[in-house]
């Protein structure tokens, strides 16, 4: 049985560009409506172009899909319902952990919790989820651990500050 998990990681464009995209799509609808009443065929072409360009900016986002078939991960970009990306196998990543990161700048800073698969050497990692809350990130980590049959770990702070490297330790 094929099982998969999906996680939307964020928009491809900033919020003002997404809003502009929706406005351009609305303009396309207005142009198409007025072309219907006036009977001009050129208006339909302009409306179609507005709708496609606006839709590109309004609907573009990135995400991650996890599949148990071959322990594979797909990082994808989705635009206007079309998903682009391919699955890659990560059999030699036996650990999963959550990392807290600060995003944004100035007064607009916020925290995100990123879930990673971690290699045996603890140097390679693969992003498998992004969440805005710690609880949902921990739940996602548990799902990934069960799906991929990997061991949940956490970052070790004591002793890792000497050389700047942090290594994960098992959760007790």
Structure description:
The chain is an alpha+beta fold. The protein has 2 domains: 9-80; 90-170, GCC-box Binding Domain, CATH 3.30.730. Helices cover 33% and strands 36% of the residues. It has 3 helices and 10 strands. The strands form 2 sheets. Strands 1, 2, 3, 4 and 5 form a 5-stranded antiparallel beta sheet that branches. It has a 5-stranded mixed beta sheet with strand order 8-7-6-9-10, with helices on one face. Strand 3 and strand 4 form a beta hairpin. Helix 1 packs antiparallel against helix 2 (42-59). The radius of gyration is 22 Å and the shape is elongated. The model is unreliable at 156-164 (pLDDT under 50).
List the helices and strands and how they pair.
Elements: E1 4-11, H1 15-38, H2 42-59, E2 61-67, E3 72-79, E4 82-84, E5 87-89, E6 95-103, E7 110-118, E8 125-131, H3 134-148, E9 151-155, E10 168-170
Parallel strand pairs: 6-9
Antiparallel strand pairs: 1-2, 2-3, 3-4, 3-5, 6-7, 7-8, 9-10
Helix pairs in contact: 1-2
Shape descriptor: elongated
Q: Give the terminus-to-terminus CA distance.
A: 31 Å
Question: Biggest sheet, open or closed, and with what strands and sense?
Answer: 5 strands, antiparallel
Topology order in helix (H) and strand (E) letters: EHHEEEEEEEHEE
User: How many helices does DSSP assign?
Assistant: 3
CATH class of the largest domain: Alpha Beta
Architecture of the largest domain in CATH? Answer: 2-Layer Sandwich
CATH topology of the largest domain: GCC-box Binding Domain
Rg over CA atoms: 22 Å
The average pLDDT score comes to 81
Task: Estimate nothing, just give the exact number of structural domains.
Answer: 2
């Amino acid at each position: 049985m094929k099982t998969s998990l999906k996680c939307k990681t964020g928009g491809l464009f900033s919020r003002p560009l997404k809003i502009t995209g929706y406005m351009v799509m609305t303009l396309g609808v207005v142009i198409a409506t007025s072309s219907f009443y006036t009977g001009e065929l050129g208006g339909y072409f302009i409306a179609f172009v507005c709708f496609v360009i606006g839709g590109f900016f309004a609907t573009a986002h990135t995400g991650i899909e996890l599949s148990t078939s071959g322990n594979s991960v797909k990082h994808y970009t989705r635009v206007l319902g079309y998903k682009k990306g391919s699955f890659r196998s990560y059999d030699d990543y036996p650990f999963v952990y959550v990392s807290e990161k600060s995003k944004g700048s100035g007064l607009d800073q916020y925290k995100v919790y990123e879930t990673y698969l971690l290699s045996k050497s603890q140097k390679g990692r693969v992003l498998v989820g992004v969440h805005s809350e710690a609880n949902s990130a921990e739940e996602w980590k548990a799902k990934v651990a069960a799906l991929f049959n990997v061991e949940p770990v956490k970052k070790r702070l004591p002793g890792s500050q000497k050389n700047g490297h942090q290594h994960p330790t098992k959760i007790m």
